[in-house]
Structure to design on (148 residues):
């Protein structure tokens, strides 16, 4: 069967009204391999690249409040660098490259629902302005974090 667990989706289908970075980019911790005092960064199962996470605000005015902020995981050799802040905006607009979604069943108070894990291969300023930072940007220090 040609269907894989991840589905490639255009950025505009996931964030039709845009997205804004609202957190630092942080390494995703591999909880199975990590030990107390010795964190291990998660590696992407398909590419073997380190996985990073960033929280973004979905600018969809009709999104429910609990769905306004989502985590995007980025598989990249080096820590991706978010685009520069835009003048007059409180958040940094972002466009993701190589977006995929993975559907899964999430429990919410005993009520199952379909949820989606969002992954990307890089991030850049919207409209292709600025350089891509899908792991090719400068490495920055980050904190261990887990993505939801």
């Amino acid at each position: 069967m040609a269907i894989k667990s991840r589905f490639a989706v255009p950025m505009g289908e996931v964030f039709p009204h845009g997205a804004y970075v609202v957190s630092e980019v942080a390494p995703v911790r591999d909880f199975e391999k990590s030990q107390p005092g010795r964190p291990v960064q998660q590696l992407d199962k398909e590419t073997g690249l380190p996985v990073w996470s960033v929280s973004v605000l979905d600018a969809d005015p009709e999104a429910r409040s609990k769905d306004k902020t989502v985590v995007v995981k980025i598989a990249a050799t080096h820590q991706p660098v978010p685009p520069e802040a835009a003048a007059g905006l409180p958040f940094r607009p972002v466009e993701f490259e190589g977006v995929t979604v993975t559907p899964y069943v999430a429990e919410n108070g005993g009520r199952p629902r379909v949820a989606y894990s969002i992954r990307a291969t890089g991030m850049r300023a919207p409209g292709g302005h600025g350089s891509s930072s899908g792991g090719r940007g400068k490495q920055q220090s980050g904190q261990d974090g887990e993505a939801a």
